[in-house]
Amino acid sequence: MKLRSTLLLLLSAMLVFVLAACGGGNNSSAPESTAQTSKPSAEASSPVAETSAPDDGTLDHSKPLKLTVFSTTANYAGPQTGWFAKIIKDKFNMELEIVASNLTGGDTKISALMASGDMGDIIIFGDDKNHYPNAIKGKLLLDWTQDGLLEQYGKDINATFPKAVEKAKVAFGGGASVYGIGNNVATNPSGPSEGKDMTWGPDLRWDLYQQAGAPEIKTIEDYLPVLKQMQELEPKNENGKKTYAFSLWSDWDGNYKMTLAKQFANMLGYDEIADTAVYVKADEEKYYDFLSEDSWYMKSLKLYYEANQMGLLDPDSLTQKFDDVVAKYKDGRVLFSWFPWLGAANYNTPEKTAEGKGFALVPFKDELMYSTGFNVYGGNGIIAIGAKAKEPARIMELINWMYTPEGAMISAGSGTAVPNGPEGLTWEMDSSGKPVVTDFGWKAYTDQQNTQVPAEYGGGDYYYGSNQMNFSFVVPAMVNPDNKEPYDHNLWTTTLQRNPSKLDSDWRAKMGVLTPKEYFEKNNLLAVAPQGFTGKEPLTMDKTLEQKNKQIGTVIQQISWKMVFAKNQAEYDKLNKELHDKVNGLGYAEVMEFSVKKAEELFEARKSVK
């Protein structure tokens, strides 16, 4: 942007003074660290001064820039540290402070920040259903088309992912404005977008499963007796602490369903439409009411209830958080994992896998894996810039970089898997121009929290040094145009050709494939969901229905947990009836009517990529 005249600069300085007198970006409800980094200053307070840049389009990085990142998906709060912090400090002279509603307040925290008028400098929404459009209506987000922000500093996003920009404009920007961009965007038009592993498992402790005789598992319910056998084989971990099949956590529940009661539906080809009452088939125009008798939400509650009756459910599940569960996987106290990025990522150290110990996929006969297809329009997760952000041009430059091959190679996997990390430390390019994981990299990927990063790369452990926004910018399975290999290190040719551990060798020999994804592809057990766009603004609930839906969600969540820990079948049945009676009284039929319309909207969107 061209430099302004002396008069305009004086007016800007006056605006700074006024903003400072009114409190500017400060608010009493924000965390202390947020308030400290949001304080107006002469260098970065008014929109005019913030976006100023030399005529050649370059930005001045000489002054450090501290940004508040409010993420509804983050599982960490505090300053970004470690290797990712060093990379963005060196490249952009930036520091990040993460604010996570997942950890404190949930929807209440989100609503409080929205009411304050300042959500932060960078805002990440887990989906685009409610909070994102409400933030746009509340004028809390910056329009990227203003002052040529996207055109000048988001050139790679514009050039590589034009469909994602188109969706942002049509769906949420009145056909002209861009208030954010979707996650997991790709250039590939179709096909399964997962990497070596699928998003879900189920994964079991492979070594104990083999010791139990590797019994055939036909249905999901068949896991319970198998897991009981495994628990009897290893009732305590190496430190004498009791083992369990399932260890649940509630801090991902938000204000609706019990999160961990939906995973088995994904293993049967269905997924939910967020904040609605329906689960939708990936590759067919089929849906069902998730509170119906045949729903795998309700069946999952019954499964966990039965697991608890058998002594297979961790009693800490009612009170613990996600980080507590991660620690239990790491300590060998959990035998079942819904996700490969949970069990295997935290338990499967090189030492254990060399002995044949670790988590691996153990599918059931009727499994049909829900697969998210490549999405040229971007996913429902959104990254945006706050309306009161400091120096939005520099923020736009950072976001744009995350969508480039250089940025994607560093953070690929963030949000769903272990990120690649810094070149030269965890990976490097070989003589043929192909990426290869270093010895240090394999150690870091398999034992993130116990792997210390050298000081010259940022120090600290590898896990907390990762990008703590918990947002996957580019689909990790997408091919990097610079080296013709996928971004995900698990899919590199050099990785697949690497000498497997004893665990990998045994699993591959018994399954007849190299990777879990290959197993599902080879056996035609994938249900791929086309990721399309209707070309219209999405349907949204009106305020009255939205409020009813939140009340219903709270009831579902609270009673679901009570059902799982019911003392007997009679109490379980009583709670089940109470659940249905209460939600029906609150207007569940209206929510269901809207949910069906959302399913029909989804079916229409899928036709755009068929």
TrEMBL record:
Instruction: Tell me yes or no: is Signal among this UniProt entry's keywords.
Output: yes
Please give the organism. Answer: Paenibacillus donghaensis
Entry's Gene3D superfamilies?
Periplasmic binding protein-like II
Key words, A-Z: Signal
Ranges of compositional bias, category Polar residues? 28-44
Q: What is this protein called?
A: ABC transporter substrate-binding protein
Enumerate the residue ranges of region (Disordered): 28-60
Which residues lie in coiled coils?
none
| Record's signal peptide | 1-20
Keyword Signal present in the record's keywords: the answer is yes
